[in-house]
Amino acid sequence: MAKRVLVSGGAGYIGSHVSVELIEAGYDVVVADNLSNCDMTCFEGVKKITGREDIPFIKMDFCDIKAVENLFDEFKIDAVIHFAAFKAVGESVAEPIMYYKNNLESFMNLIQVAHGHGGCNVLFSSSATVYGEPDELPVTEKSPRQSATSPYGNTKQICEDILRDSVNAYVTGDSTVHIGSDRPGPIKGIALRYFNPIGAHPSALIGELPRGVPNNLVPFITQTAIGKRDCLNIFGNDYPTPDGTCQRDYIDVVDLAKAHVHAVRRMLEGKMENDYEVFNVGTGKPLSVLELVKAFEKVNGLSLNYKFAPRRPGDVVAIWADPTLANEKLGWKAERTTEQTLASAWAWEKHLADK
Question: What is the DSSP string of 18-56?
């Protein structure tokens, strides 16, 4: 019988791509989402890509512990991939309490209920933001976690700690701290620290679909190119980098999704070397904001209207990954080129316009 994977926040950008890869790898998938930052567009796209009309979808909020209990009562869950969180750096600076309440409570509820229902393998969607402003580049998994530059980044750090401590506490499954069931079980966990996901599925049926003004660079680029936005703001051109704009490790969202499948397989097949593990998921190749903009123009034969704007609070100067550990231990490596990724992003934007 196929193993069942719960994807919390699975109707969103990354969750939908991960759902596709999981289904194509032979897993049964349950998608749960409160649709606070997305609609059903990408979930419907997942069904079209996979040819599966029977994917269970539960509209729920993971901050509602009763709803989480009901979910685990209904389905036997072998692994969870947790995406359900607010994710905008700038918004988190402006609304810190909203971010702490939502991102921490939802994850604690998930682990508490999973532990109380026989235990579970938990894959946490972490972020390069846990490294803050790094002292050395590229960052490895052993690089120190610096003070977070935003409440969003801090919630990622805290959730990593919650998962690590829960793994240590519940490793044997005999703890009495549980709810909803009388058979508490062990928690095993992997945190994937990924860098800057961009692009869309090659089918152009799923991609990044922000509500309102985008918080990420590539949707702003594509919306400017299609005419939804008059001008692209590049925040800061006076950073200590070769062209003055921030440097990031941009990873294709399909490559990123495949890393989740490798990590889930590692957990379910008992191949973990420790009960809690951390992996960087990136390309290892830095690209500046301005380089990415110019690459988009070149790949798609377009000219963008852009201007430089003041720096944004919470942005680090430069960060990129050393992905060696994920390459060696997960058997995963980023494969898609920047050109393929930016072409897919533009195809997705045009698909949305055609709809």
Answer: HHHHHHHTT-EEEEEE--SS--SHHHHHHHHHHT-S---
Residue that the structure tokens 């399909």 belong to: 254
3-class SS of residue 202: coil
**What is the rounded average pLDDT of the residues 46-50?**
98
Gap between the Cα atoms of 188 and 64, Å rounded: 23
Residue 149's pLDDT band, with cuts at 50, 70 and 90, is confident
Residue whose C-alpha is closest to residue 13's, from 39, 42, 33, 34 = 42
Cα separation, 21 vs 179, in Å, equals 32
- Residues facing residue 276 across a β-bridge: 189
d(CA 182, CA 176): 9
Q: Does the pTM exceed 0.90? A: yes
Structural tokens at position 28: 């049964």
pLDDT value of position 179: 44
* Whole-angstrom distance, CA of residue 324 vs CA of residue 317: 23
Query: Worst-scoring range by mean pLDDT, 139-143, 176-180, 216-220?
Result: 176-180
pLDDT band at residue 182 using 50, 70 and 90 as cut-offs: low
DSSP type of residue 125: E
Cα 89 to chain centroid distance, Å, stands at: 14
Q: Report the alpha-carbon distance of residue 4 to residue 29 in Å, rounded.
A: 6
Closest CA to 36 of 71, 18, 12, 70: 12
Take residue 85 and report the two structure tokens written for it.
Answer: 């969180």
The answer to whether residue 94 scores a pLDDT higher than 90 is yes
- Catalytic residue list: 152
